[in-house]
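debug: dumping io for the single-chain case to check the tokenizer round-trip. Nothing else runs in this session.
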Amino acid sequence: MRASDTFARLGGDQFAIVQVGIAGEPDVEALCARILETVRRPFNLLGHEVFLGASIGIALAPEAGDERADLLRKADIALYRAKGEGRNCYRYFTPSLDETVQLRSRLEEDLRTALADGEGLQVFYQPEVASAGQPVIGLEALVRWQHPTRGLISPEQFIPIAEETGLIMPLGEWVLRQACIVSRRWPELLMAVNLSPVQVRSSGFAERVIEIVRECGADPRRIEFEITEGTLLDNGEFTGKVLQSLREAGFRIALDDFGTGYSSLNYLRQFEIDKIKIDRSFVQPLGRALGLTVTAEGVETEEQKRLIAAMGASEMQGFLFSQAVPEDWDAGLLSRLNARAKPNEARSALTTLALPMGSGS
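debug: decoded output
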């Protein structure tokens, strides 16, 4: 940065830089590249190697306007576009982005309405199968939104809106209640429910979850909460206490998308994880060495299934076995999947599921 540049913290993890008298986009992009390169360098925090990321939004005057407040608003819009495209990048404000923000505002209003009247939201369930013999051993609850005029809206589009607006709290509770109802119907199966980092870091979250499951009459030992590596790093000490409270109440904890982020083995031991869910391209005999269950996600072909089983994954999930299906799915789906297993293997796996789920493997 130059001596004439202004640098300020806006609040939380957001900062602003104001530059005047620049040569245009080349100067801006050179500064962005230096910022991203600096932020990418790992640093040591209490003995742990920590990696950060950054997203940058840019608004140029006079193309994007000349009012300070308007330029800041538009830079913020571009910032969220950068976040939505994978982070660790920079994006310029364009008029089309303004239209996107207006759409997000309308979707927020519609999501509030859907949560209030229960119309359009539905929970789908995707089976998880055992590598040995392929009996169905669990279901993952996945929320879907059928908008009255826009059709099916992907979770990638409305979950970030829910997180930014606080709607993730009532939405998450609604999904958990629906999952508990289905879990009671299939008591021999584990029910996996995804948790947002916004939920985990909210005050009293663990107590609220325990209360909801108790109200629904579900068995906590049959509920498995999935979190991401980023959630573990978000206020790690507080998150650790939340996860500990959940495990003490009988719930299992799974680390989703393992291998796509920080992937420190220390986290697995520090937070007492029961399972890691890993993309099929990353499967290794890692979980067995650490005493963890390994679930390979995204399995789509018989060849992938064969290779993944040989590499040591104990469970699989993907379109090869089933897509996510609605609550009123054909009950024969489970029978058809289990029928593909050898009889003795299926009986052995289901007997194991009946055992108490404590901490460990």
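debug: round-trip ok. The radius of gyration is 23 Å.
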